[in-house]
TrEMBL record:
Membrane disposition: Single-pass type II membrane protein
The enzyme's E.C. designation: 2.4.1.-
Top-level taxon of origin: Eukaryota
Location in or out of the cell: Golgi apparatus, Golgi stack membrane
Transmembrane segments: 7-28
Protein name from the UniProt record: Fucosyltransferase
Pfam families: Glyco_tran_10_N, Glyco_transf_10
Domain Fucosyltransferase C-terminal stretches: 278-389
Originating organism: Eufriesea mexicana
Family: Belongs to the glycosyltransferase 10 family.
Keywords: Glycoprotein, Glycosyltransferase, Golgi apparatus, Membrane, Signal-anchor, Transferase, Transmembrane, Transmembrane helix
């Protein structure tokens, strides 16, 4: 009996020990997990505040005024933030995925934004900060869509737009063209679309859904190597001094007269590709320029806009030269002095340029940006009652 009693005591002792160990190895981790979660949450909040403060400093360095910064959406500001910055907090949560309807021209736009002009389909949500969205090209989904995208460049008249039945939808006007070429068909007036759209979707960073052809961001690690850049590589690649890329032959700022003068000066050292040029900063700068390890020469877009959007000391602007001959002389000077030439590539140590236009196999972020805007933008009631106050060829373009 005594032996059994001792056995019972030992068993009871082991049970007590077991309970203590369970408390240590189960309860403590739960408490630790909660504590870690609180610390992570606090760090995220601190990081967001630091990011917000750092971003304001960064944007001011790029010559954005406080007024211009104030007009940007949270999404627009984040797109200009440093590499690795946390995205904005999700403001608009929805149990079901957001349904995005591309009105009428979804199949046509798919060539660029889904297929990237290849035979393969890519997910528009790959590496997107949010993925809780679904695309539709079906007009019958109009009444259930959260957002409806209208591609103005392909819209022939207001008659193509449906009758609006839900005012809590986001109607978005999309144009990748400059205000001079908003409409491809007919002699349409933009003011006739007043009072219809809630959001803008253009290459401008103060759009509700910004879709720039490319972006410049600060690198996470200063002086990090650029695997696509080396001085020897550039020397081996250079076969001509100047290449002209263009797709718009009309032009209203005399740029093709300028190009013709350069051609007379450089002769066979200048090649012209494409049809002509565009007024604004398109893939010709981000892809044909920076991606191809060249120095862009810009005409049309004001220098102050280029300084906001492009890496510092990375381009030449015709406004800095008295005439084509002066520009030509400086280009030849750079070609003869490698140290001065490579100063225009120093930015690659501190910045990176991101192509997001969908051409030449590059990624397109258009549909991802809509999904992000639906999650991040403030859910305020907004209508473009005077659309030309935002998008205006007379005030925004050089005529």
């Amino acid at each position: 009996m005594l032996g059994i009693s001792r056995y019972v005591k030992i068993l009871l002792f082991l049970c007590i020990c077991s309970t203590i160990f369970c408390t240590i190895f189960v309860t403590f981790p739960n408490l630790l997990r909660k504590r870690v979660n609180r610390e992570v949450s606090a760090r995220k909040t601190d990081h967001q505040e630091q990011t917000k403060e750092g971003l304001a400093i960064l944007l001011r360095k790029r010559n954005y005024t406080n007024r211009q910064i104030g007009k940007m959406s949270l999404l627009g500001r984040w797109l200009l933030s440093s590499e690795g910055s946390l995205p904005p907090p999700i403001i608009n949560k929805k149990k079901e995925p957001y349904l995005i309807l591309i009105w009428k021209h979804g199949k046509f736009l798919e060539r660029r934004h889904i297929k990237r002009f290849t035979n393969k389909k890519f997910s528009p949500w790959k590496n997107c900060t949010v993925k809780h969205c679904v695309l539709s090209y079906r007009s019958k989904d109009l009444n259930i869509a959260d957002a409806v995208v209208f591609h103005l460049h392909l819209t022939q008249s207001m008659l193509e737009l449906p009758t609006r039945t839900r005012w809590n939808q986001r109607w978005i006007f999309l144009t990748d063209e400059s205000p001079l070429h908003t409409f491809l068909y007919g002699n349409q007036e933009l003011f006739k679309y007043n009072g219809l759209f809630n959001w803008s979707m253009t290459y401008r960073v103060n759009s509700d859904v910004p879709v720039p052809y490319g972006r410049t961001i600060s690198k996470s690690f200063i002086n990090s190597p650029d695997i696509n850049f080396s001085k020897d590589l550039i020397k081996n690649l250079k076969t001509k001094l100047i290449t002209i890329m263009g797709s718009n032959c009309a032009g209203t700022n005399g740029r093709w007269n300028y190009v013709n003068e350069l051609k007379l000066i450089f002769g066979n050292d200048l090649d012209i590709y494409g049809k002509c040029l565009n007024e604004y900063i398109t893939e010709k700068v981000f892809w044909h320029g920076y991606h191809k390890l060249a120095i862009p020469v810009i005409m049309g877009a004001p220098r102050k806009d280029c300084e906001k959007l492009l890496p510092p000391h990375s381009f030449l602007h015709v406004d800095d030269f008295a005439n084509p001959t002066a520009l030509a002389n400086y280009i030849r000077y750079l070609n003869q002095h490698d140290d001065k030439y490579f100063e225009f590539h120093e930015w690659r140590k501190y910045y990176k340029v991101i192509n997001e236009h969908g051409y030449f196999g590059s990624i397109s972020r258009h549909y991802c940006r809509i999904c992000e805007a639906l999650h991040y933008n403030f859910p305020v009631v907004k209508v473009y009652e005077d659309i030309e106050s935002f998008w205006n060829k007379k005030q925004d373009c050089i005529l």
